[in-house]
Amino acid sequence: MANDIYTFSKGVLTREEADVVAEYPLNLHVNGREIATLIASPHDLRFLVAGFLRMQGFVQSVDDFQALSICSDFGAASVTIKGELPERLKPVLTSGCGTGITFNMPKAPPRLVGRGSYTPESIFSLMEEMAKRSLQYRSHGGMHSAAVAKGSLLLHAEDIGRHNTIDRLAGEALLKGINLSGAMLATSGRVSTELIAKASLLGIELVASRTSPTDMALKMAREAGITLVGYVRGGRFNVYAHPQRISAPTVSVTTAEVAA
To answer: pLDDT tier at 95 (50, 70, 90 boundaries)?
Structure first.
C-alpha cells in the first residue's frame, strides 16, 4: 500500500509515494478454541497456519486437518484438527524482531544421521536465489526471507517475522507433500535455538544465514547433527558446527598465525 513519505537529502525534505511493509494480526482458533494471535505478513496465510501447527506438534500430516479456513476480512483463522489440544497451553515469547510465540520450548532434537555433502557453491547459490526472490524486501524493506533447496530451490517465503518464514516453509511443504529431509535451509535472520529445533523437525541437515547464530543455537546444532553456517557474504562464510559436510579442504591455523 502506497503512503506519503518524506525523504531528507541535500538539506531538503522531498515528498514521494512509497510502499510500507504490511503487518497483519491473525487470530487463530483451533477446534473452537482461541490459542494465539500471529503477527505476520498478510499473504499465503494458510501456509503460515499449517506450518505453525506443524512446528508446535499439533499436526503431522495433511490428514490431521479436518478444516482450515482463513477469513482475511476479519483477521481470523479457524482450524479443525484430529485429536485434542493440550488442556493447558503455556505461551513462550521467542527472540527476535516481531517476537514469535511457541507453546513448546526448544529442546535438543534427535540427532540427524544424514550423510549429505554440500559444496560452498551450493550455499552461495541458495543465498543468491533467496535474495533474488525477496521481492517485498527489495520493494520496501522490513522483511525476512527463508528458502529451502535440494540441488535446486524448492520453496521460498517472506514475512515480517523470521520465525514465520520457517513456519511458512513447513506449512507449504506439508500441504504440497514436499519432503524436506536432507535439504539446505537459508535464512536472512539470526539463527536461534527455535530455528534449529524447527529445522531438525523438518529433517534439514544444513542451515545457512547472512548473519550469526547464538551460542545456544550452536550447541543445539552440534547435538542435532546440523551443519551451521553463518555470515554468508562476499564469497565467504563461517561454519560453526559439523564442517565435515562441507566439501572443501580443511586447514588449521593457530592463534599466533591469525595474529600475524
So the answer is: very low
CA nearest 169: which of 192, 144, 190, 137? 144
Contact at 8 Å (CB) between 24 and 40? yes
- Please indicate, yes or no, whether residues 183 and 216 belong to a single structural domain of this protein: yes
Do 128 and 86 lie in one domain? The reply is no
Do 126 and 226 share a domain, yes or no? yes
Task: Report, as an integer, the average pLDDT of 192-209.
Answer: 94
> What pTM was estimated for this model as a whole?
0.85
Annotated active-site residue in 2, 5, 71, 97: 97
- Residue 226 and residue 165 share a domain: yes
Residue 199: burial class (beta carbons within 10 Å; 0-12, 13-18, 19+): buried
Active site residue 97: yes
